[in-house]
């Protein structure tokens, strides 16, 4: 796989869509790698390569926006387990330690 790395590259020479969130006089490190549309093997099994892609670069999120997005995410999902099931699992794990 081919890879190009440039250290201390001027932000002013980047395309407009890559300048977002950086000071115009800053320098950045550029790493360009060939993108493979394949399945990536990991410890937990195969994951699509898109799993490892990051959000579009931009200014950092404000803490209040981050907390609100977490609240909205949690509200939109059903709990993965109910309280009784969680207590049962915890007691089961605790009892394993007692047996040893």
Notes on the protein architecture:
- It is a single chain.
- The protein has three helices and four strands.
- β3 and β4 form a beta hairpin.
- It folds into two domains: 58 residues, no CATH class; 40 residues, no CATH class.
- It has 100 residues and is an alpha+beta fold.
Key attributes of the depicted protein:
100 residues, alpha+beta, two-stranded antiparallel ribbon, two-stranded antiparallel sheet, 3 helices, 35% helix
Total number of distinct structural domains = 2
Put simply, the count of helices is 3
Element pattern in H and E: EHEEEHH
- Low-confidence residue ranges: none
Biggest beta-sheet profile = 2 strands, antiparallel
List the helices and strands and how they pair.
Layout: E1 3-10, H1 16-19, E2 27-33, E3 39-42, E4 45-48, H2 63-76, H3 83-99
Antiparallel strand pairs: 1-2, 3-4
How do you describe this structure in short?
The protein is α+β, with helices and mostly antiparallel strands and 100 residues long. It has two domains: 1-58, no CATH class; 61-100, no CATH class.
């Amino acid at each position: 796989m081919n890879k190009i790395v440039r250290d201390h590259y001027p932000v002013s020479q980047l395309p407009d869509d890559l300048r977002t969130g950086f000071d115009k006089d800053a320098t950045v490190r550029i790493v360009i790698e060939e993108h493979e549309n394949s399945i990536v093997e990991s410890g937990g099994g195969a994951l699509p390569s898109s799993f490892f892609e990051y959000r579009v670069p931009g200014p950092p999120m404000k803490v209040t926006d981050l907390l609100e997005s977490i609240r909205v995410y949690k509200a939109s999902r059903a709990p993965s387990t109910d309280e009784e099931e969680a207590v049962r699992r915890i007691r089961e794990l605790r009892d394993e330690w007692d047996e040893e």
